[in-house]
Specification:
By secondary structure, the protein is α/β, with parallel strands linked by helices. It has 12 helices and 13 strands. The protein has 2 domains: about 10-235, inorganic pyrophosphatase (n-terminal core) (Alpha-Beta Complex), CATH 3.90.1640; about 240-375, Diaminopimelate Epimerase, Chain A, domain 1, CATH 3.10.310.40.
Length: about 375
């Protein structure tokens, strides 16, 4: 017997965060960060702090990392290092790296003895797509995603500066707020970076945008290099993009207002999120779920309209993996024990089965759905 769909809880503003997660009411974010750094920096023995984000950082994560670097250098007198892992292949993200000449060190090849502490942006400790050096303390978190298990945070040792704003549309907007409070004049490159971060994560303020997101977008856009913004927004596409698109269209199935795409093995984790975004735009789709394996990690991306993505992906994953999300966007990962095709096929069957439980029986059109290439 199929399990009934779980009830969809209220939006992220109804989530109660335990003490230590999120800044105390009425406290200046910058003032709190300054006090934490001043209290701890004496123990760092002159070593550099490390700025990290999740694996394969997206535009919001990239912009927030580089914005934080400016803040730490110019306001707190630190010399941070930016590091990241994972191959970036989505065309817009590659264009952002190229146009804004972004460079960082490989997080998987660091000499960790050279660093003092971690400043973490656009993710949190415990997220499946985030690997942290166990010997380095996380002293600051800047994020807007709902943690996978809020209750589990209670009673755990937490970073002393934990700026989690679930209502915010982009971490880049948070970083803009810090820079503005520090009265740091934005140069054109930093402004263009932060503008990209806000516009990509809020769909040009159409998705989960707050007053701070709007202020960040308009102020950074005014100071941005508009020619570079245009080239990042509409980059040239390699032939492999069209090959992967054809494969995704061939494998995806439609069930009424839901598109499910379990793609087997894919070339990059970014292509999973890209296809979820792509399918969500199709009429009459109201939510799309796409999954694919890279190496021994299976990636899932969910996009919705009119309901929160977090509980849907929680139901689909069950006990198979870790996940996180905010509003209409959620993503998860499952660690595969082997590279065997049989294990991957079994996982996709389980995920498809749980996803079908969330679709009203009258909309399923059979267990295998309708091929997108067969829709008249």
């Amino acid at each position: 017997m199929s399990r009934p769909p779980p009830p969809v809880p209220p939006g992220p503003d109804a989530v109660t965060l335990p003490p230590g997660v999120g800044l105390p009411p009425g406290v200046s974010p910058l003032g709190h960060l300054r006090s934490v750094v001043e209290r701890l920096r004496g123990d760092w023995n002159g070593k550099r702090p490390l700025i990290l984000s999740h694996r394969t950082p997206d535009p919001d994560a990239l912009a927030a990392m580089f914005g934080l670097e400016v803040l730490l250098r110019r306001d707190l007198g630190l010399e941070p290092e930016i590091a990241a892992s994972g191959r970036i292949s989505r065309a817009e993200n590659v264009a952002m790296l190229r146009e804004l000449e972004l460079s960082y060190v490989d997080a998987e090849r660091l000499d960790r003895s050279r660093y003092s502490a971690v400043f973490l942006v656009d993710t949190q400790p415990g997220f499946g797509h985030t690997t942290l050096p166990p010997e380095l303390p996380v002293v600051a978190v800047f994020d807007h995603h709902r943690p996978p298990d809020v209750a589990a945070l209670a009673g755990k040792p937490l970073p002393p500066h934990y700026d989690l704003r679930l209502e915010a549309g982009a971490t880049s907007a948070l970083m803009f707020g810090y820079l503005r409070e520090a009265k740091i004049e934005l140069d054109q490159r930093t402004a263009t970076l932060l503008c990209c971060g806000v516009r990509f994560d809020t769909l040009d303020l159409a998705l989960s945008a707050t007053k701070l997101d709007s202020e960040a977008f308009y102020e950074t856009f005014r100071r941005s290099d508009h020619a570079k913004l245009a080239r990042i927004q509409r980059p040239s596409l390699p032939p492999t993009y069209y090959r992967d698109l054809y494969r995704s269209l061939s494998r995806a199935r439609m069930y009424g207002a839901v598109v499910l795409g379990f793609l087997g093995r894919v070339t990059s984790a970014e292509s999973v999120a890209e296809m979820a975004d792509f399918f969500r735009r199709m009429e009459p789709c109201r939510w799309s779920l796409v999954g694919g394996a890279v190496g021994q990690t299976y990636h899932l991306s969910l996009r919705t309209e009119g309901r929160e993505a977090y509980p849907l992906l929680q139901h689909v994953l069950g006990a198979d993996g870790s996940f996180g999300g905010r509003g209409s966007v959620a993503g998860g990962q499952v660690r595969l024990a082997t590279d065997e095709w049989d294990e991957l096929a079994r996982l996709e069957r389980r995920l498809r089965g749980r996803a079908l439980e969330l679709i009203p029986a009258g909309e399923r059109t059979g267990r295998r759905g309708v091929r997108l290439t067969q829709i008249p």
